[in-house]
Amino acid sequence: MRSLFAVAVVAAGIGLLSGCGGGLSPLRASGDSWMAPGATAGDLLYISDEGTNDVYVYSWPAAKLVGTLKGFDYPQGECVDTTGDVWIVNYGNSEMIEYAHGGTKPIARLKDVGFTLSGCAVDPTTGNLAVTVLEKNANSSGGSGGYVAIFKKARGVPTIYSNEFLNFPSYCAYDDKGNLYVDGSGDINPWDEFEFGELPAGKSAFTIITLNENFNYSGGVQWKGPYVAIADSRSNVVYEFKIRGAYGYVNGTTPLQGGSYVFDFWIQGSKLIGPNAGGASVMLWNYPAGGEPTKTLSDFAVPFGAVVSR
């Protein structure tokens, strides 16, 4: 079973296997997980591809393929902690998998998080791991919908946080003070009822935040202090918001020309890395200017998540 978002992309009639000319060809990789000698000495870009069930690792900023992680079942969202360890949402097995920077074998697994996992974030102040869960496990009580699961120090049994307006949380990001920002929907159709909220550090209840911009489709969230960046993955644009209490005001707009359903993007310095789930490629744009991509990595199937481990 695919994620809700991937199903919607396919239903929209987008040619997911079309690809783009030029660049590297991770689809041709085969065999076991591997990492090029010396790759761990530099920054690494991780791209999850739920179409091939692999995660491809590139040098950064050169964007040259240096490794492939295998054995996933629809890998999706990704996040990284302050030590460079990378967490990957393994949607098909309803689990989170952790890899050390440049490592080829998992160093931790967190299971029974929920049924449909989407995104994740690591709190830089505590090491806590937050995971957005679109749907509960089949044996969970409380009706349909999902929640945010937070694992203390990224281990053990999570604490569950829910909100009726964020009934289907999609993606999340921590700021530098441990406040968690989450987007999603109050309805199972993510384009019908976009919502955005904050779980303040040390609190147990969400604050729903009204944004002065309409969203067509929820997408990735990233803190770029003092702003929070949020993707409208259907319109292929990323907005920067200044949050003031229960309101968010647009500070800047980054149009992703050529993008096609950019979900779990990543901003690293002056570049925005966007996996095109609907275009079988990964594009790099200048940030915050956007516009035409500056580079394209091609021949993916359904690239979904991106993160840079330093």
Q: How would you explain this protein's 3D organization?
A:
The protein is mainly β and 310 residues long. The chain has a single domain (4-309), classed as Neuraminidase (6 Propeller), CATH 2.120.10.30. It contains 1 helix and 26 strands. The strands form 6 sheets. Strands 1-4-3-2-26 form a 5-stranded antiparallel beta sheet, with no helix packed on it. The chain is globular and about 50 Å long. Mean pLDDT is 88; it is low at 1-25.
Notable traits:
single chain; 310 residues; five-stranded antiparallel beta sheet; Neuraminidase; 26 strands; disordered N terminus; mainly beta
CATH top level assignment: Mainly Beta
Strand percentage: over 45%
- List low-confidence stretches: 1-25
* Structural shape: globular
Structure summary:
Helix content is 3%, strand content 45%. With 310 residues, it is mainly beta.
Q: What does the secondary structure layout of this molecule look like, with pairings?
A:
Blueprint: H1 4-11, E1 34-35, E2 43-49, E3 54-60, E4 65-69, E5 75-80, E6 86-90, E7 95-99, E8 108-111, E9 116-122, E10 129-135, E11 147-151, E12 159-161, E13 168-174, E14 180-185, E15 194-199, E16 207-208, E17 210-211, E18 218-224, E19 227-232, E20 237-244, E21 247-255, E22 266-268, E23 271-276, E24 281-286, E25 295-297, E26 303-309
Parallel strand pairs: 17-21
Antiparallel strand pairs: 1-4, 2-3, 2-26, 3-4, 5-6, 6-7, 7-8, 9-10, 10-11, 11-12, 13-14, 14-15, 15-16, 18-19, 19-20, 20-21, 22-23, 23-24, 24-25
